[in-house]
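Following the same procedure, sequence and fold were stored together, as reproduced here:

>
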Amino acid sequence: MTITDPAASPFGADARPERGPARVRLIVAGALLVLVALVAGVLLGRATAPAGAASAPSAESAEAGFARDMQTHHNQAVEMSILLRDRTDDEELRLLALDIATAQSQQAGQMFAWLNVWGVPQTSTEPEMAWMALPTLDGGHDEHSTAHMPGEPMPGLATPEQMQALRDAEGLEAERLWLELMIEHHKGGVEMAEAVLARTDDELVTRLANGVVQLQQKEIDYMTELLEERS
């Protein structure tokens, strides 16, 4: 991944843009929308998840593992999007970032609620991504079983160094970096969603996972076009 030279930023290598009252209000309003989406997702998840030991996935199931790991994955996308909104004045990108942040906050809230309703813990003693090594519904194994070993970083997750680079960036540099990181992040999210679809017939999980695949693939195509415009 190529990170643009800081000198290419319209604000210069060291300067940061001034944020007046109007800009601060926009930032606060965006954060509130994300919080509302998260709460709405929790309420929706509680309302739609069937309770009862007979129907609830177990703590070691693919459904529970997906719900835990995808929350972590989504939460990073929300953080990245909030960072971008504070580092660009491009309204098209600011709107896209807000859409991603609110949609993924709501989905993270749903998955948090599922785990509570299912009566399984939000955390696990198993390493991350262990659920992707579980057999598929037909009892076999797919490419996801071997592509990611338990304990490895989730697909598409930005590294701490990449997150810091985004925090340090401004203007066009931040736009390019965010688009590069979010495209890879979405590809990883699609991969995780496809992996759980091969391992579950739970209606709630399949509905959300299919939504992730369809929406994020469209956003990947859109972000690719936006990145090409900035190359």
Summary: Residues 39 and 109 are 6 Å apart (CA to CA). The domain at 25-46+59-229 is CATH 1.20.1260.10 (Ferritin).
